[in-house]
Amino acid sequence: MFDEIRSNKRRSVLLIVTFVFVTVLIGVVVGTLIGGGFSTVIIAFLVATITAVISYWRSDQIALRVSRAVPADPVVYRRLHNLVEGLCIASGLPKPGVYVIEDPAPNAFATGRNPQHAAIAVTTGLLEKMNRVELEGVVAHELSHIRNYDILVSTIAVVLVGTVAIVTDLAIRLMWWNGGRVSRDGDRRNGSNPLALFGIVLLVVAPIVAKAMQAALSRRRETLADTSACQMTRYPPGLISALEKLKEDTTTTHSASMATAHLWIEQPLSGVRDEGRLGWFHRMFDTHPPLDARIALLKEL
Question: 125-154 burial, b for 16+ CB within 10 Å, e for fewer?
Fold first, then answer.
């Protein structure tokens, strides 16, 4: 457990360093192509550094706002607060912020930078469809992410992955219009536009980079959180039953996005469990292990 915590902290540092490097690299490419020179590199470095700092200190609030999470009223959601408090006392964790998301799909996630600055959010669909022991298993899973410091690297990735996509999109637009420095008529006369070619390459590379950064989070963290949750509750059937309900549910979590998909207890976006012609393609971008595999592992405990 402690080895995994140290590993997650190292991943956080590596993620930020990689992000800064990729952003500066994009700045170098754009600066070279549009004639912006060294100033473009400086701007890219400043953007990367500022975003990295913001992602560390404020990424949890960004993730909550993007997901439209609101603080859970202690009276209206008394059962949820009682479960969180009980599990925190049993595991020695400070109580995180508790949030609710108005969404019929059953799902939940944890966010923050450390156990002292953390929050968990659950959908109204989860509260409606789970009984007490199942909800306890889901809450324990999210608290395990907090205890294992999974939330640090996962939450930072929300901002960094989104920023890489935005910066790349701006770079493509700048290169496409060529910074106003080269005649587009000249491009047509020459029959080719090398800037457009670089733009196409960036279009291909951008989602790959974003997915690679999410892949750095590793599917193993979900398996570890499942196991840790069972240790916390001392009742594996609760989480097993919750995961089985999640497997049977076919609704899509509308509060999720590509940037936050890896945070949730179950992969929230459409395309999951798609067995059609493009099923193999969708599985390439899965952010979670298959629920069948997670359930089978827990049944062996």
Answer: bbbebbeeebbbbbbbbbbbbbbbbbbbbb
Residues 140, 198 within the same domain: no
Range of the domain at 135: 67-150+218-299
Which residue out of 142, 222, 266, 275 is catalytically annotated? 142
Q: What is the DSSP string of 238-269?
A: HHHHHHHHHHH-----TT--TTTGGGBSS--S
Instruction: Please indicate, yes or no, whether residues 141 and 231 belong to a single structural domain of this protein.
Output: yes
User: Which of 206, 229, 219 has its CA nearest to residue 288?
Assistant: 219
Residues 19/48, Cβ–Cβ less than 8 Å: yes
* Closest listed residue to residue 108, CA positions, set 135, 73, 90: 135
The pTM score is: 0.75
pLDDT at residue 206, as a whole number = 64
Q: Does residue 249 share a domain with residue 110? A: yes
The per-residue pLDDT for 191 is 46
Coil, strand or helix at 118: strand
Which of the pair, 137 or 52, is modelled with greater confidence?
137
> How high is the pLDDT of residue 58?
79
H-helix or E-strand containing 48?
Answer: helix 38-66
**Do 145 and 233 fall within a single domain?**
yes
Q: Helix count (H) and strand count (E) of the chain?
A: 12, 4
**In a shared domain, residues 143 and 77:** yes
Query: Residue 147: what residue type?
Result: R
**142 annotated active-site:** yes
What angle do the packed helices 132-147 and 236-248 form, to 10 degrees? 100
DSSP code string of 65-105: HHTTEEEPPTTTTHHHHHHHHHHHHHHTPPPPEEEEE--SS
